[in-house]
Design goal:
The chain is α/β, with parallel strands linked by helices. The chain contains 4 helices and 6 strands. The longest helix has 21 residues, at 82-102.
């Protein structure tokens, strides 16, 4: 799996995923960094087959209307400490890996994973 972590999520999450063996970039790694337009983020996601990890509902709208980004992981935890976010990912990476094999839009909260059809 390859990931693109959006601006409102910490760079630390991207580092954690990369250290876990996943090809991961954060929007800060892009030429326009966290100022990268959503359309460009979508284009990178599609071109590189990257799952976009975001808290931004604008990406939900674009996914539902024009099927962009490539795949979407919406984080709906509200404010969460970085260590708790890492723990959440650590606990759910295997499940996410399996779900993304069959699905394109998944939502993860503090206590549940929702697969959207």
């Amino acid at each position: 799996m390859k990931f693109l972590v959006d601006a409102q999520l910490p760079v630390r999450l991207a580092r954690f995923l990369k250290a876990s063996g996943y090809d991961t970039i954060h929007t800060r790694d892009l030429p326009q960094q966290n100022g990268t337009l959503d359309t460009e983020i979508n284009a990178i996601s599609i071109k590189q087959n990257r799952i976009l990890i975001t808290k931004d509902s604008d990406f939900v709208n674009s996914f539902l209307t024009i099927q962009q980004p490539y795949k979407l992981l919406l984080i709906t935890t509200g404010n969460i400490k970085n260590v708790e976010l890492e723990s959440l990912f650590c606990s759910n990476l295997q499940s996410l890996f399996q779900l993304f094999d069959q699905h394109s839009y998944i939502e993860m909260s503090r206590d549940t994973i929702i697969v959207h059809q």
